[in-house]
Automatic annotation (TrEMBL):
<dbReference type="Pfam" id="PF04248">
    <property type="entry name" value="NTP_transf_9"/>
</dbReference>
<dbReference type="InterPro" id="IPR038694">
    <property type="entry name" value="DUF427_sf"/>
</dbReference>
<dbReference type="InterPro" id="IPR007361">
    <property type="entry name" value="DUF427"/>
</dbReference>
<protein>
    <submittedName>
        <fullName>Uncharacterized protein (DUF427 family)</fullName>
    </submittedName>
</protein>
<feature type="domain" description="DUF427">
    <location>
        <begin position="24"/>
        <end position="116"/>
    </location>
</feature>
Length: 125
């Protein structure tokens, strides 16, 4: 098995992880899935801002881990979750890096949500 490519953020592909000063909530089909004042904001060139929410602030009972995985050479292996709701499932709408690369180690034990599939709100709520 060949080793996966590992790239490091830099001027050609900047990535930053900072603490959010805002309250971040996530709802799916009207059900609150996450509510935190401890989110991390990941900014990566070419991608929209992603809020990473501590697992402790996510209703994990509303999620089921799937077998889907992807690989990012800057962040590592991403694992996915499906949101469970009374109206059906939202498949692979949540991702996490359980063992992220050193450059983004802060996102370990955090989950991110596709904002086009669930409602992610950030503000002084």
């Amino acid at each position: 098995m060949s080793e996966k490519l590992v790239l490091h953020p830099g001027p050609e592909h900047p990535i930053s992880v900072t603490a959010s000063a805002e309250r971040v909530t996530v709802t799916a089909r009207g059900v609150m899935i996450a509510d935190t004042r401890s989110a991390l904001v990941l900014r990566e060139q070419g991608y929209p801002i992603a809020y990473y929410i501590p697992r402790a602030d996510v209703e994990m009972a509303q999620l089921r881990q799937t077998e889907h995985e992807t690989y990012c050479p800057y962040k590592g292996e991403a694992h996915y979750f499906t949101v469970l709701s009374a109206d059906g499932e939202l498949t692979n709408v949540v991702w996490t890096y359980e063992d992220p690369h050193k450059a983004v180690a802060e996102i370990r034990d955090h989950l991110a949500f596709y904002p086009d599939r669930v409602e992610v709100t950030a503000g002084p709520q």
